[in-house]
Amino acid sequence: MNTSTRKNAQIGHLDAEDIKMLVESLLHLVSYKPSCDPQLTRDSIHTLENALRQEIVSWNADDGLDGDLFEFTTKRSAALSEFFYSRHTFEDKLVLALYTWEVFFFYIDDKGSKLCLEEYQRLLLLGRQPEDRAMARFQELLAKFYDIWDPVCANLMFSGALEFVNGNILERRENVCEMDVRALASPWPKYWRTKSGGAPGFSAGIFPKENHPDITKYIQALPDIDDYVGLVNDILSFYKEQSSGETSTYVHVRARTTLKHPREVLAEMVAEVGELHARISSVLEGYPAEFEAWMAFANGSIGLHLTLERYKLSEIGFPSL
């Protein structure tokens, strides 16, 4: 066995064909169907990008931001909002795109450490705004959720944003990222992923109160939708992450805690997504508006990963947008 082969075996390297087969299995289990015409999607994303860009520039919070990072984050946020929430009004999609922009920006950029994220929740409790204008706008944006969503959903989205801040803090601590992952710490991968994924915000965002006034029609499905969001992202991001040499992903950490090869872990995750999709659909059965909103979201969350070049899935046979 040569050095490269030994290294791949140690980190649980998967062949591209293995990953393709797992992705195809996922698409089959959830009966994936592309949401709409690609040109319409491109046009909608472009319109949302422009509105998002204009809003953020109006904050006067982009001084000194890296131009390429600003554009990358803007384009990715608009695409996510359009794919996830294709049935929402433009105004609601813009609010969700702004939320996503803030989440992505503080996650991707090193600016988060300069803004003292560890102090963010303390400032909220003291009723003080951060000095940074983007972070101050984030608080205003979170408050706007209550105009669009049921107060319970708005609370979930708000607390999900704060959990994301905690996850971001953890990921920035070198002693946490580099610590030995214990084999018996099996709840740790999901715990860390839940903190850093922002899933509650994306899940509750499916159901604006204007179209879904009765929270009892969908509230029981939200825990499974949270898990669906995280697992789909981790499965469909794996090829990109492996190509970049990342070995601290959810898949790899879960593999270490369960003493399994990442291929086996990914296969388990695909099966879990299929079970989640079936269960969510059953819970929402009999509520047409909620079921249709869920299906649009479920297809869109997969479509985002399949079609955007960022995830590199075109390299293994999936068409890009």
TrEMBL record:
Top-level taxon of the source organism: Eukaryota
GO MF term set: carbon-oxygen lyase activity, acting on phosphates
Keyword Lyase on entry: yes
Pfam families linked: TRI5 (PF06330)
Keyword field: Lyase
Family of the protein in this entry: Belongs to the trichodiene synthase family.
Protein name: Longiborneol synthase
